[in-house]
Amino acid sequence: MALRMSSLFxxxxxxxxxxxxxxxxxxxxxxxxxxxxAPGIYTWLxxxxxxxxxxxxxxxxEMNRAGSQEVHFPGLLPADPYRxxxxxxxxxxxxxxxxxxxxxxxxxxxxxxxxxxxxxxDLYSSYKDLPLSIFQVQTKYRDEARPxxxxxxxxxxxxxxxxxxxxxxxxxxxxxxxxxxxYLRAFARLGVPCLPVKATPGAMGGxxxxxxxxxxEVGEDTFVRSPGGYAANVEAVTSIVxxxxxxxxxxxxxxxxxxETPTIETLVDAxxxxxxxxxxAWTAADTLKNVxxxxxxxxxxxxxxxxxxxxxxxxxxxxxxGTGMLGNGEVDLEAATxxxxxxxxxxxxxxxxxxxxxxxxxxxxEGSSKIRYLLDPRVVDGTRWITGANExxxxxxxxxxxxxxxxxGTIEAAEVxxxxxxxxxxxxxxxxxxxxxxxIFKLGRKYAEALDLKVLDKNGKATTVTMGSYGLGVTRxxxxxxxxxxxDSGLLWPQHLAPADVHIIVAGKSEEIAQAAEDFTSAxxxxxxxxxxxxxxxxxxxxxxxxxxxxxxxxxxVVGRGLAEGTIEVRxxxxxxxxxxxxxxxxxxxxxxxxxxxxxxxxxxxxxxAGVTGVSGVTEVAGVDGVTxxxxxxxxxxxxxxxx
Length: 644
Ligand code: ATP
Ligand code: MG
What we know:
It is a single chain. The protein is an alpha+beta fold. The protein folds into three domains: 201 residues, Bira Bifunctional Protein, Domain 2 (BirA Bifunctional Protein, domain 2, 2-Layer Sandwich); 157 residues, YbaK/aminoacyl-tRNA synthetase-associated domain (YbaK protein, Alpha-Beta Complex), CATH 3.90.960; 105 residues, Anticodon-binding domain (Rossmann fold). It contains 15 helices and 32 strands. The longest helix is centred in the last third of the chain and has 30 residues. The structure holds adenosine-5'-triphosphate (ATP) and magnesium ion. Adenosine-5'-triphosphate (ATP) binds next to strand 9, strand 22, strand 25 and helix 11.
């Protein structure tokens, strides 16, 4: 196939799109791949569609390889199945709702667990029909609060979603593992460095889940890893809970005047000055900080809660909201506003505490505030604290957890910081940012139960099916590939993902040059390679080179002045190399190189999975320079999987 710049529906842009912050957004717009239609909603142009379809092809091949069969659901769905599963509410304002002319409720599907479940229920009835794995590549709709960064977070986006159906837990484990391998292979072939990390199920429910994270500063997710190979989303990190401490000999709690100490810092200074400890100085870690927050539940109700945590820790609102400990479904958590505080005069700003009498608590559902009180898991029974006395300028000292106060529960709300211990004892954690490009879930029986998906087992007894669900963000991955592979002057795709295999530039006005470029184009086409031919008459070579740099096909062939001497310039932009080849060698050399790149991408998938069985080694994640489809990403993935 040949695309001709003279007629191709594309106009490259000099200016970045308004408000764009990340390279992929800027470059996909400027190179004429996508156009914004509305916030978080994009139109696809021919070059964009070509790359997208190459990505989809790889994803489909890996799904098929894992034994999954392709189906296709509508994006427009009746609301009822989502009501039955509870997600009509749980999705909250992220769900796009609409009505038909008969006033029936519909949604634009944000994900498809419910209807896949119903389809299988419709067709299957026996354990002999299982296991089953089916998938689709389909458009999803989510009214994201903050669509951003072009394709990275859209309100309309393409997801590959797969679902597995098994008769028992062992079956689900095997289905999950097959998908995990398919993801490692797909991301390796796509050239995206990625790391599987432990995650929390959130609104999806179910047991085990992992996210596949592309480590990058542009990501909105923070994840952690340890030298011993632990990797998790911050939401999934669990604190190491200390042993409880006997408190028979602990001094009784006492209230002290601590004027002008509304912050932890001022409190610690005042405590050391006027109430020093014998054994050592007070530190922020001795104080119990009580933070007032507002939870917005999926049904819109707003709940004020108080979170108690050691004073040397900050609250991480996203982590707390993502733990699933605040309620069912996706909740929003924010710091309480001054109006919230005004509505609760019992909460004395800067001096809030649980109260010093177990029988007459201040905080907690049983307390005078009737406000839910949740504690950091490190606040175990027997720990001694300095905390607010619920009066301006006064604090309680030696307040003992379990003796003087209790809470309504615990919550992992504290910010995870560099050096915190990994929960599995594999060393100190380091933090990094990344983009979630996929997530796989062992859903279990939640959806099958809600929608009554049962089959007859061996003994003829109706048994609830157990399910897995597996999402991969196709358009988001494309943005991540663009993040990973670009230069200052434009995109620079891995060879096998570029919108054409070869970019031929007519760099001269003569008939011979034009004809030679046409001949190369036909020769590549007959070898099965696709070509983008820059045959524009009135455009200078300089402009053509700039466009080629922006569009990002790594193999560029310049048919120009050298032709008279029988040579052609061939550029390998990924290797940053230029060579002058004799005319007769151009096609064979280039075809061999392009085919090798395709083969390398496939080999990368094998290497990634070799890691799963412990064969492959660990290599660094490489940057743009010199990345070939076979090296860094695969090795990174493979190295990671060794530790699982
Ligand atoms: P996020 O936490 O980033 O909002 P999510 O956890 O809600 O994502 P899932 O429900 O797990 O997303 O969806 C599966 C995959 O779909 C994600 O791993 C991601 O790659 C992709 N995806 C989700 N939301 C978006 C979006 N708004 N735009 C583009 N891709 C998305
Ligand atoms: Mg997810």
